[in-house]
Amino acid sequence: MRRVCVLALIAPLLLSTLGAHEDNGSEDVLRIMEWNVENLFDTIDDEGFRDEEFLPQGERRWTSYRYWKKLSDISKVIVATADDGPLPAIIGLCEVENDSVLTALTRRSILRSLGYDYVMTHSNDARGVDVAMLYLPTCFRPLEQRDVRIPSADHDLPSTRDILYVKGLVRSHSQPAGVDTLHVVVVHLPSRLGGQQGNRNRALAAKTLWSLVDSITATSVQTVPAIVLMGDFNAGGKDRIFKQSSLLLTDHPQALGTYCYRGVWQWIDHILISSSVISSSPALPLSLPWLLEAPNSSGVQMPRRTFRGDTYHGGISDHLPLVLDLRLK
After folding, report:
1. Are 231 and 131 in contact (CB under 8 A)?
2. Distance between CA atoms of 132 and 184, rounded to whole angstroms?
3. I want to staple 128 with a disulfide (CB 3.0 to 4.6 A). Which of 49, 52, 200, 294 is the partner?
4. pTM for this one?
């Protein structure tokens, strides 16, 4: 009852912030997008982090032209998701460097007219790579945000990316106050390339992640809180780390995956939801033509990445974005 009363008090302000929607049967639909954007670095040295390779004089020759082209291309993909539905209300991004790149993306690309805002982590990852969440204030109103640090250093492991947790309010006609609470978690688990040390770090990060999910459930006034968890897990859907969670994977069973390594497609990016969230269909990788290479001699198409090794290739990312439409019960 307390939750309904509190929401009833703030509902008029929230609904005016979120804006009016026509009653067309889709007013409660939230489009979620997740994307590892492959090393979205600016061209300025970020002191204290190993970002030298992404400087104009660095080994990758990361120039202003290449940087702004990547920002423009990312923004065009986000806008293109609205071809068959609404714009993404919430977008989880992996491999972003700092506030500078997100300010440029939301304020100096074609996204500027759409009103996206963002929150992000500020972790101790050696290269300065973080995760972030873009959101439309007309659809989602943040109430709480925090970085959840992986205690890697306590286990003599390299520092890795923090987990981003954001609690906010969304419109919901299923609730008396007209709004509901949504918990969003964005994660980028450690790479699989680190051998035994990498496996230990990924297991530790997964343990921290599921502890966060458990704490959300334990402290929520909702019987089953609405949770959306997304990111690059560096693990397939059948990996043992997912056996520790009650959240539901939304991977499309017929889709090839989000990442292609040596011609083999893999699902390593995922969107998971709690049982109080309804998805109208499974999460689907967005395979726009300009996101993919031409088929190789075996007929396999791969994501058109920004770099092949240290050689500039001109693509956007080595991962495909995921899109999921959902409702809160």
Report:
1. yes
2. 11
3. 49
4. 0.91
Per-residue pLDDT tens for 220-261?
A: 988 899 999 999 999 999 999 999 899 999 999 999 999 999
Contact 270, 284 (CB under 8 A): no
* Paired strand residues for 271: 230
Sheet order of strands, 248-249 included: 141-148, 163-171, 179-188, 226-232, 269-273, 248-249
Calpha distance 261→315 (Å, rounded): 16
d(CA 40, CA 138): 26
Helical H segments across the chain, by residue range: 2-18, 64-80, 99-107, 195-219
69-72's contacts with Cβ under 8 Å and 24+ in sequence apart are 69/314, 70/37, 70/40, 70/306, 70/316, 71/40, 71/101, 71/104, 71/105, 71/108, 71/109, 72/109, 72/110
Architecture of domain 29-328: 4-Layer Sandwich (3.60)
What stretch of H or E contains 327? strand 322-328
**Cα–Cα dist 230/186, whole Å:** 5
Burial label for 47, CB within 10 Å (0-12, 13-18, 19+), is exposed
Which residue, chain included where needed, has tokens 């104009």?
Answer: 56
Which of the four pLDDT bands, split at 50, 70 and 90, describes residue 23? very low
